[in-house]
Amino acid sequence: MNDLLGPATVLLGAVGLAMLAAGPILVINGALGRRQIRRELTDQKISFPEAGRLPARLARHAGRPVTTGPQAKAFSEVIANNVNRMTAGRTYSEISAALHAAGGADEKLIELRQTAFMGQTLRASLLNAYQAWALASLVIVLGVLLTGAGGAFLVLGALFGTS
Hints:
4 helices; elongated; transmembrane helix; transmembrane; membrane
């Protein structure tokens, strides 16, 4: 058993050092990802409408700019509500089908299809920003956990090495 203690101690130390090196890299990359998302959202100059024009659950965002992933998700709800109201709940494909059934020349359906397309595309883009933000946040948390585990491995290696 003691014959294995030396290699195990070295292995714990090596794994601990690798984790200590990788953890901060993950934290930095996650933070850089969130910064890029924030910059992209800020550059779009999207702001929530005033409180009276928002559902009650989104009222805390009233008048604020969209600069984070969770705000992008919340604003995507605003877009979804507006598109649903304007299209009477119909999707782009349902409106396209109605337009084709009408011979393709109905101006109202052409405009409605364009509205649905733009709204659903904007909503999807905002949801992508939210998902990227969530992933970057996960990378940060994993980096912190990896750093902590690496430190613990180093301590264990040191403890085993002195016994």
